[in-house]
Amino acid sequence: MTENTKTHVILLSCGSFNPITKGHIHMFEKAREYLHKTGRFIVIGGIISPVHDSYGKPGLVSSRHRLTMCQLAVQSSDWIRVDPWECYQDTWQTTCSVLEHHRDLMKRVTGCILSNVNTPSTTPVIGQPQNQTTPIYQNHNNMNHSPTAIKLWGKISESLGKICCVRPHIERFTFVCLFPPACLSSVELRILLLCGSDLLESFCIPGLWKDSDMEVIVGDFGIVVVPRDGADTERIMNHSSILRKYKDNITVVKDATNHPMAIVSSTKSRLALQHGDGHVVDYLSQPVIDYILQSQLYINASG
Question: Which of 105, 177, 229, 246 has the CA that lies 20 to 30 A from 259?
């Protein structure tokens, strides 16, 4: 398949990111690597969407801190960015709503054909105030040598910045568009939910997810699952009629090696911080650790 005939994918990860860990970034990298190996997809971008403060999870620090930590964690990435739309809403948003928001935004600014989308959305697009500081998405170092897919992501990011919600400003980040003129409407684009096997397993808990939301998430969008702790994803999927129904829309990242990042979690990171455990450097990037210490986060937190 040529690049133009492959499906271009944006990976979207929702969660607390309390705090964001090396494991979260590893999940993006492994998913992109695997999707490229299939020969059917080109991953052009990744989006991290931290949950709203009203989610109510014990020990959840302010979105202001979580957004900053996420920005610091991806500052060296040329394809993953942080989106605060979820945090800036009046209240908590469902995963389904977040996916629909980004789908509507992508359709509006790119004209791309978003495949496998059957359900219309009423999610509003938030307008950006005039004279607002230019949105910050990523570090542009070495972008001149990025492949066409990354340049496409640059074009999309630039367009999104003109109409989507205001993003936190971090002075050392700048954004530059290096994508040459092209007809974006000729590209097939999909937004896939990126998650660990723990989220997949939560789909099987009665009453936790609305069936209608699961139909949209798995049926209309599709998900990419990175297994954790040797989880049996096949068994998990067989426990849910909806997961079985849309099995073809679920991509499980297969990796023969047991990478240590697969067991890293925010919970372990918080515990390490509370106990002064030096292993925290294995869980969190140094800029994130520095920010946590400077802001005195999690040190006396519970959960």
Answer: 246
Please state, in angstroms and rounded to a whole number, the distance separating the CA atoms of residues 92 and 247. Answer: 28
The pTM of this model reads 0.79
What's the CATH fold of domain 7-260? Rossmann fold (3.40.50)
Rounded to 10 deg, the angle between the 148-163 and 95-110 helix axes is: 100
Asked if 51 and 82 touch (Cβ cutoff 8 Å), the reply is no
Residue 156 burial (CB < 10 Å; 0-12/13-18/19+)? buried
201-252 pLDDT, tens digit per residue, is 999 999 999 999 999 999 999 999 999 877 789 999 999 999 999 999 999 9
C-alpha neighbours within 13 Å on the C-beta side of residue 174:
7
241-268, pLDDT tens digit by residue? 999 999 999 999 987 666 666 678 899 9
Cis link prior to 19 (omega < 30° from 0)?
Answer: yes
